[in-house]
Amino acid sequence: MRLSVAAAISHGRVYRRLGLSPRSRLDLLRNLVTALVRHERIETPWARADEMRGYAERLIDYAKRGDKDERAMRMADFWLTEKDLIHKLFKVLAPRFQPHPGSYTRLLQIPSRDGLDRAKMAVIELKGNPLPPLVRPRRDSEKTLLNQLLKGYRQDAQRAAAARGTPV
Q1: Which of 135, 131, 82, 141 has the alpha carbon at shortest distance from 108?
Q2: What is the structure's pLDDT at 24?
Q3: Which helix (H) or strand (E) holds 152?
């Protein structure tokens, strides 16, 4: 009997498909980048947020060059579908991230979407935004492997101490 593991082979694809055609994928990414610049925090499926993150960070890198740079203006004009946000990109966000060399966004996983698809959801936000900070989920629950092992160790120590008759 032969056991095989299903593997996702990309065959030369370097990005997620996300839509029906390359044009719809690009429109979706442009709308997500525009929403991120406008609201500075958005909630979207994990795959979309992860794919959009690089484009948003690259746009901010270009914006740090200044609004006099022709390439930066062309990139902002292409990626932002709402043209009133170009001013915010160059006058608000670029000065905020000027001292930072990179990593302008934060990506946090949130509970999966309810409904039929149960999509893995995420919140992507620009660092330093005026919104209240998100609470990161704590990993110290009873279900983690380390806590299960510690719990078993404590029970064994209590049993051994009870057998000897000494309190723990």
Answers
A1: 135
A2: 92
A3: helix 145-164
Q: Which amino acid is at 99?
A: P
Can you say whether the dihedral through the CA atoms of 15, 17, 21, 24 is positive or negative? negative
Check pLDDT > 80 for residue 91: yes
Per-residue pLDDT tens digits for 3-45: 665 666 777 777 777 777 889 999 999 999 999 999 999 999 9
- In the block, residue with structure tokens 């498909």: 17
CA–CA gap between residue 150 and residue 142 (Å, rounded): 10
| pTM confidence score | 0.74
| Edge-first strand listing for the sheet containing 41-45 | 41-45, 121-126, 105-110
Longest CA span, the chain: 81
Segment 140-158 mean pLDDT: 86
Burial of 49 (0-12, 13-18, 19+ CB in 10 A): buried
